[in-house]
């Protein structure tokens, strides 16, 4: 058995026993009170999920297994000391709860490079059957579903297996799926934007470096950017739409492909992962309407106010949990300041940052007026030559696989059952209003 799997069993067994014990011996413990508002406005703040891979603090932002992004930039293995951490490392950390060694990261890189070589040809046939102008997320998700013919979980389930072993073929499916996503993403990118002129993977490269290479952007800076991008988008605890959808569908014992596909359908919504391309749409439309490549802050403020007045959202701003500037926004700005401080799009992002929070505060209803991860990611990619913004949510999805699929393995290690919250009709809520 692979040593990472062996390690996982050792780490997970006592935790699974603890979950079992908590349910059996403390099942009636009241955890929190829930208000009408929470239920009717998206269940915000209701603890309804067990997730170990990362935790989001409203003020501080995300921590992966206890480590903040600046700490991970120090502690995770890199190819070169002045470069960015390898996403293989955060996968190992989220999976096992321990910081990886260089050897662990190399082992995962090699595993993924080998597993990536066997994508069945029908997956590419299915992509080719779609019109070229079908949104890249449609193509991405269709390919993910087409790959489910390879599901090891489904095969093992049909043969018959003990519940406590569900995690094992899930792990195998997750490793296969993650390994193949960069090839799928790059294939779609080259198909849609580069006349189908595909670039084979280079098995000597790391997972994110390979993605940049196969997309045709193989400078060292873009490889570094891709490693950073894959690191910071990988997880955002369990309740966000892509994580929760993956978990929910997985709770029906759907295989990793079905489960991840559900998460990706959620990521494709404009209030979630599609916001990264909507930001570029918003910025470019603003420049066109103002008639300037370099609008003033006063012009940007007026445009933002018009967006609000028209009943639309300003993409890249606000968050359901965060109440401060997203550290994932800051770390991308730091990257831009290191490599491309004078890039016009980065200057524009900074100008927008100077005016939009006040515009949102003035609405009197936005709970978080600060930028989220999507406010800068597209401008950064564009500044490095990846300017075809419909691909951005696909890149987000490749990264998000690391967190949500690790959680799927843990769901099965913990032995979590099918998810089934209760729903009620409107009268039930009306009946609960205290009588005067
Ligand atoms: N622009 C305009 N209005 C906004 C806003 C924004 N950026 N953010 C919140 N609001 C509005 C909400 O639409 C809501 O309006 P109504 O009361 O009229 O319905 C009100 O402010 C209160 O919302 P909230 O409690 O502050 O925010 P929610 O938790 O409901 O929504 C989010 C969070 C992210 C969907 C929202 O801030 C938004 O739509 N942002 C723009 C889209 C975006 O950037 N999404 C990406 C988030 C990160 C990610 O998942 O990738």
Automatic annotation (TrEMBL):
Its EC number is 2.3.3.16. Keywords: Transferase. Pfam families: Citrate_synt. One of its GO terms (molecular function) is citrate synthase activity. One of its GO terms (biological process) is tricarboxylic acid cycle. It is an enzyme of class 2 (transferase). Pathway: Carbohydrate metabolism; tricarboxylic acid cycle; isocitrate from oxaloacetate: step 1/2. NCBIfam families: PRK09569.1. Belongs to the citrate synthase family. This is citrate synthase (unknown stereospecificity).
């Amino acid at each position: 058995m692979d040593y990472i799997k062996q390690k996982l069993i050792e780490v997970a067994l006592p935790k699974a026993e603890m979950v079992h014990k908590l349910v059996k011996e403390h099942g009636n413990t009241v955890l929190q009170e829930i208000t009408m508002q929470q239920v009717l406005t998206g269940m915000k703040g209701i603890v309804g999920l067990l997730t170990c891979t990362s935790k989001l603090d409203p003020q501080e932002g995300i921590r992966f297994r206890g480590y903040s992004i600046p700490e991970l930039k120090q502690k995770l293995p890199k190819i070169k000391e002045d470069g960015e951490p390898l996403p293989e490392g955060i996968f190992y950390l989220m999976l096992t709860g321990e910081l990886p060694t260089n050897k662990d990261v190399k082992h995962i890189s090699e595993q993924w490079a080998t597993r990536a070589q066997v994508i069945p040809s029908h997956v590419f046939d299915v992509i080719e059957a779609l019109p070229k102008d079908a949104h890249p997320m449609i193509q991405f998700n269709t390919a993910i579903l087409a790959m489910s013919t390879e599901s090891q979980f489904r095969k093992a389930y049909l043969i018959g297996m003990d519940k406590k072993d569900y995690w094992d073929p899930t792990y195998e499916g997750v490793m296969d799926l993650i390994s193949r996503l960069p090839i799928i993403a790059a294939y779609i990118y080259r198909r849609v934007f580069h006349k189908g002129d595909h670039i084979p993977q280079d098995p000597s490269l790391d997972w994110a470096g390979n993605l940049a290479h196969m997309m045709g952007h193989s400078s060292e800076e873009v490889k570094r950017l891709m490693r950073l991008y894959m690191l910071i988008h990988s997880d955002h605890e369990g309740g966000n739409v892509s994580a929760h959808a993956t978990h929910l569908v997985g709770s029906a014992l759907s295989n990793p492909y079905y489960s991840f596909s559900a998460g990706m359908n959620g990521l494709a919504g404009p209030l979630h992962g599609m916001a990264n391309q909507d930001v570029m749409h918003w910025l470019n439309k603003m420049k066109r309407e103002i008639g300037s490549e370099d609008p003033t802050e006063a012009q940007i403020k007026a445009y933002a106010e018009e967006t609000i007045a028209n009943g639309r959202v300003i993409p890249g701003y606000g968050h359901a949990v965060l109440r401060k500037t997203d550290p994932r926004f800051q770390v991308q700005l730091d990257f831009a300041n290191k490599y491309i401080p004078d890039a016009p799009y980065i200057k524009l992002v900074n100008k927008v940052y100077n005016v939009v929070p006040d515009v949102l505060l003035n609405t009197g209803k936005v709970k978080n007026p600060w930028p989220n991860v999507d406010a800068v990611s597209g401008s950064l990619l564009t500044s490095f030559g990846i300017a075809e913004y419909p691909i951005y949510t696909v890149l987000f999805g490749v990264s998000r696989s690391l967190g949500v699929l690790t959680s799927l393995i843990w769901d099965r290690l913990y032995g979590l059952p099918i998810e089934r919250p209760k729903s009620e009709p409107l009268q039930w809520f009306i009946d609960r209003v205290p009588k005067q």
